[in-house]
Amino acid sequence: MEWVRGEILGHGSFGTVSLAKPKRQSSQEIIPQLMAVKSCGVSCSASLVNEKVILDEFRDCPEIIQCYGDSFSFEKGEKLYNLFLEYASGGALADKLKNSCNSGLPENEVRRYAKGILRGLNCIHKNGFVHCDIKLQNILLSRDGAVKIADFGLAKRLVVGLEKEGNLGCELRGTPLYMSPEMVTGGDQSSPADIWALGCLVAEMFTGAPAWRCSDIAALLMRIGVGDEVPEIPGKLSEEGKDFMRKCFVKDPKKRWTAEMLLNHPFVSDDDEDGDHSTVTLKEVPSASPRCTFDFPDWVSQQSSLTSSSITSLSSPESSPDSHSWFSGQESNSFDGSWSISPAERLRGLISDDQVDWFGSDDWLNIR
Question: In what ranges is there compositional bias, type Low complexity (predicted)?
Answer without folding.
Answer: 310-328
